[in-house]
Specification:
33% of the residues lie in helices and 21% in strands. It is an alpha/beta fold. The strands form two sheets. Strands 1, 2, 3, 4, 5, 6, 7, 8, 9, 10, 11, 12 and 13 form a 13-stranded mixed sheet that branches. A three-stranded parallel sheet has the order 14-16-15, with helices on both faces. The radius of gyration is 19 Å and the shape is globular.
Length: 318
């Protein structure tokens, strides 16, 4: 693995054995580090440094009241960041961390509100990627890290995506290869009873309900966590959705007859391949200067629910 270190006056490659150590130094100095997780690449800053976190918002052009997720090295850090943690939330952490599950909890009074978007709740997770875990373990604190792209656009699943989107605005890019899952974490609101699903993700809600032995409620109200806005994960191309392959081919034909350049996304029944490839395919459509992307919606269960969520938000009015 290699990391790119961006400095004043240009960029150069950093290939030393202690590239993670360099990233830790940058974080402690208030800088930004992009790093891989099992879901997507994150744009990280020391969550305890308000000015560093504000730099994330500025680089992403993200509204300051839209909360970030704080990444931890392990569940023992949970009580440093949250209070009144329900037993069922601790059980989910024990069962699913490291992994693509974010728990929304009441923010500890000692924790700065900046990464929480000024709210009294905070999203926490432990990522399941060896490079992310090494970074977090050596850093020792929480790293606030939304996806490493411009706000509302397609999330990055490779280091090259990060560099294409943000360039020298990131101080260090840790390259851990393509993200193995490819869509963001599931977010569960643990401050309500029953718990509520704020964002479907890589851990199916059915699995969470099985772990807890209770149903998870549907989210209501305003955006309380990342990815809850109507339009998100959007390429420059217009996105059209179809329920099956035949319908997708028909929509694509109509668009092509009208003179549009069309890209078709139809990976079949392999939902893991769909999730892993979705953002790369949306980015490729923009690289090919497509006018329209026609995507087949997977079934609304399991991982398919999360893929449908991303596609519907990519297709929403902007």
């Amino acid at each position: 693995m290699s990391a790119r270190v961006n400095g004043v006056g240009g960029s150069d490659e950093f290939d030393g054995a202690d590239e993670v150590g360099r990233a830790v130094e940058v974080l402690r100095g208030g800088g930004l580090v992009a790093f891989p997780t099992e879901t997507v690449y994150g744009l990280g800053a020391d969550a305890s440094q308000a000015e560093a976190v504000r730099r994330i918002y500025a680089v992403k052009q993200r509204p300051a009241d839209h909360p970030l997720i704080v990444h931890l090295a392990g569940s023992p850090q949970l009580d440093d960041w949250a209070i009144d943690v329900p037993d069922d939330a601790r059980r989910l952490a024990e069962l699913c961390w490291p992994g693509p599950l974010t728990l929304l909890l009441r923010r500890h009074l000692a924790v700065d509100a900046t990464p929480a978007g000024g709210r009294d709740t905070i999203g926490l997770r432990v990522p399941a990627h060896p490079l992310a875990l090494e970074l977090l373990d050596r850093f020792g604190g929480g790293i606030a890290a939304p996806s490493a792209n411009r706000f509302g656009r397609v999330s990055p699943t490779t280091a090259e995506h990060v560099r294409a989107d943000l360039g020298d605005l990131v101080d260090v890019v840790l390259d851990g290869g393509p993200c193995p899952i490819g869509i963001e974490s599931t977010i569960v609101d643990c401050t309500t009873m029953p718990f509520a699903l704020l964002r479907p993700g890589a851990i199916p809600v059915e699995a969470i309900e099985t772990h807890l032995g209770v149903e998870i409620a549907a989210a209501t109200g305003s955006s309380r966590a990342p990815g809850m806005l109507t339009s998100h994960y959007a390429p420059a191309a217009e996105v059209r959705l179809a329920e099956d392959s035949a319908a997708a081919i028909a929509v694509a034909a109509v668009e092509q007859d009208a003179g549009a350049r069309v890209e078709l996304i139809d990976p079949g029944d392999d939902l893991l391949a769909y999730a892993r490839g979705l953002y790369a395919w949306l980015r490729a459509a923009d690289e090919h200067r497509a006018d329209v992307v026609v995507a087949v919606l997977p079934p609304p269960q399991g991982l398919g629910l999360a893929i449908r969520d991303r596609l519907r938000k990519a297709a929403a009015p902007r």
